[in-house]
Amino acid sequence: MAHAKTKDALSELTATQVVRDISNGKLKAETYMAAMIARAKAVSSLNAMIYLNEDKAMAAARQVDADRAAGKKLGALAGLPIVVKDNINTKDMKTTGGTPSLRNFQPSKNAPSVQKLIDAGAIVLGKSNLHEWAFGITSTNFTLGTDQSGGAARPCKNPYDSTRIPGGSSGGTAAAIAARMAPAGLGTDTGGSTRVPASFCGVAGFRPSVGDGEGKGRRYPDTVNDALPISTTRDTVGPMARTVADLALLDAVITGSNVPVAKSLKGLKIGIPATFWAGLDDSVKTVADAAKKKLAAAGVVFVDADLAGIMALNGEMSFPIALHEPVRAIPAYLAANNAPVKTVKEVADQLASPDVAGAFGAIQGPFSEAAFRDAYLGIMATKRPALQKLYKDYFAAQGVECVLFPTTLLAAPKIDAANGSKNLSYTVGGVVQKDKDTFGTCIRNTDPCTNAGIPSVSIPAGLTAGGLPVGMQIDGPLGSDSNLLAIGMGIEAVWGSLKAPAI
Fold it and tell me: How far apart are CA 458 and CA 281, in angstroms?
């Protein structure tokens, strides 16, 4: 029984605690890594991982222990196992994108964010599952990357209820962290892909500032050629972990900055935009209202001020950007990384997931024509700056440091293993909402900030009566990433941690 307790204690350590205990000699990196690998194998039915880097991870962990015994200075993340979404370049592991055309693709170098974590002593436990090419919200992947080329769907599953999706597209990273296979990892986010799965799986997810995309305001060093692209304007790598404090730890290493301290909530002004609180599923609303009450009791000053017109403005640009930019970004990535395929068509011809095939059909359709290119340029010249100004003016006029709302309108929906994604039904104010689009419903609250390029954090807020996680999101002004993480650390101290999944 003592051994079981020890294993449980190891699985509940946060990333911050792991690196502290390895650094001070309380925990051997090899012992911890072995426990994480054993856990990953024990819950492999979740399909959270595409590839487990077992031998190299164990060797790296033993080296950390040897370095410590020899009195060498350890890195800030020495011995920390992380999982990396399988659309982010890794030089000693394949990067499949969960798609058949790249099943044997081997990049020649690590993405900069991965390299910075490794340089600080983190150890990549393996590559995590994802929605095929990261082009969706369910992570119901019809290939499971390199392990299966077609055949039956192998959906990534939610550790809190394996009949439900973990969210996407970074569903594997979220599921692995929630299931205690690793305390932290990396995802990517285009319209909600680090935060939707964080919300559905009861973990924390961070989308850093991207500002104007490739140029001014981008927080992380990764470029269009460092992870399988969708949108050069919106794509970013982002850390995921069980706590915001752990997000801040990884962020500090990636950016070369100091880890912020938790912010005092007393007198902190937070905006409550009604648009983002409308239409919530009843079970989510119950958790969200209770979470908000706890913050008010801790001294948060809520400012009820809406971001009027934001959904309409965002709707005018979201899909045109995400469906036009891949036309150039995908071939550029494939060429820069000497991939086995070179064109959008070659990728599309081998796609296994029906919903992703549909999206690629749109990429290759009228969106790529000259007339649409003019519309796209117009959006980038007028609509996107208008959205950025709307946020900037709101934060200034209301005097708030962030806005708060539920990350997703509903808790994790059921897996649709036949189609990958089907329409949803949920209840709002006792009234059943039928046949709601899965993708649009899941990203409604996460998407606007992505087009504005501002930072965003999803924080676990509680469980529904049915035992499903609910996340709450905070968005802050461009460049306020460290402050936003500090606020998130203060908030999670009030809400407390979620009960681990029973799996």
Answer: 18
Q: Reply yes or no on whether the pLDDT at 448 is more than 90.
A: yes
Q: Any idea what the Cα angle at residue 207 is, between residues 489 and 109, rounded to 5°?
A: 120
CA distance 426 to 268: 34
Q: What six digits make up the tokens of 197?
A: 């799965």
Q: CA dist 457 to 189, 190, 229, 471, Å?
A: 11, 14, 22, 10
Cis check for the bond before 264: say yes or no (omega within 30 of 0): no
CA distance 430 to 432: 7
Identify the CA nearest to 452 among candidates 191, 170, 194: 191
- Provide the annotated active-site residues: 85, 169, 193
Distance from C-alpha of 278 to C-alpha of 281, rounded to nearest angstrom: 9
Max alpha carbon distance in the chain (Å)? 68
Name which of 275, 213, 300 is nearest 490 in CA terms. 300
Helix, strand and coil in the chain, % to nearest 5: 45, 15, 45
Backbone angles phi, psi at 165, to 5 degrees: -70, 155
Helix (H, G, I), strand (E, B) or coil at 470: strand
**What does the DSSP 8-state code read for residue 264?**
P
Q: Which helix (H) or strand (E) holds 16?
A: helix 15-23
H-type helices in 51-107, by residue range? Answer: 54-69
Written as one letter, the residue type at 366 is P
Q: What is the DSSP string of 269-307?
A: EEE--HHHHTT--HHHHHHHHHHHHHHHHTT-EEE----
pLDDT band at residue 374 using 50, 70 and 90 as cut-offs: confident
Answer whether 305's CB lies under 8 Å from 271's CB. yes
Q: Which two tokens stand for residue 145?
A: 């990357």
What share of the chain has pLDDT > 70, as a percent?
A: 95
- Of 20, 15, 121, 16, the closest CA to residue 72 belongs to 121
Condensed to tens digits (0 to 9), the pLDDT of residues 396-415 reads 999 999 999 999 999 999 99
Name the residue among 322, 244, 328, 262 with its Cα closest to residue 298.
Answer: 262
User: For the residues 436-447, what does the mean pLDDT come to?
Assistant: 96
Which H helix or E strand runs over 397?
A: helix 384-398
Rounded CA separation 219/194 (Å) = 16
Please state, in angstroms and rounded to a whole number, the distance separating the CA atoms of residues 32 and 467. Answer: 29
Cα–Cα nearest to 379, from 463, 451, 289, 277: 451
Q: Which pair of tokens denotes residue 395? A: 């934060």
390, amino acid identity? L
The pTM for the full model equals: 0.96
